[in-house]
Design brief:
Bound molecules: zinc ion
Structural class: mainly alpha
Number of helices: 7
Helix content: over 70%
Number of strands: 0
Oligomer: single chain
Shape: elongated
Largest sheet: none
Strand content: under 5%
Order of helices and strands: HHHHHHH
Length: about 160
């Protein structure tokens, strides 16, 4: 048996949770260091056995309750705390729903204004017409590309 092996189990040996095997006894007889350590462990354990846990002071509970009351009094809006987080979550959810519905409605009204309320001559009407034309031209470009592709495919 090696020193490392016996030292791992030494706290249990000193506390009486494990018994020494013949191999351990042999090592302890031959190794002054390990036998000294085990003796020191046993003395520490017997000291701990004698040690009495002191009773808490009789005013401990009273003082703790007083401190808790002080902390509560220092934060008058404490009852909001439980409401704040759910309210935040609900308002975020509401914002998301509003965003989605506005996006859907916005798309529809945008198209309606494009078709119904163009006033030729006014600045807004001209800009809208230019915007529409640009959209049309870009679509034509896509069509041209498609036709070139078709030509290439037809006549390789
Ligand atoms: Zn040893």
């Amino acid at each position: 048996m090696k020193c490392n092996e016996i030292r791992e189990i030494m706290p249990d040996l000193a506390a009486g949770l494990a018994d020494t095997t013949p191999a351990m006894n042999e090592h302890l007889r031959g190794c002054v260091e390990c036998s000294g350590k085990l003796e020191a462990f046993r003395q520490t354990m017997s000291l701990l056995d004698q040690w009495q846990v002191p009773d808490p002071s009789p005013y401990f509970d009273t003082r703790v309750r007083a401190r808790v009351r002080e902390e509560r009094a220092a934060r008058p809006a404490a009852w909001w705390e439980w409401l704040r987080k759910p309210a935040l979550a609900a308002s975020l959810a509401l914002l998301m729903v509003m965003g989605v519905t506005l996006m859907q409605k916005g798309g529809v009204t945008h198209q309606e204004t494009n078709t119904a309320q163009i006033e030729p001559g006014s600045a807004v009407g001209d800009l809208q017409a230019l915007d529409k034309n640009h959209d049309l031209y870009s679509e034509f470009d896509v069509l041209d590309d498609l036709q070139v592709q078709d030509d290439v495919n037809a006549n390789p």
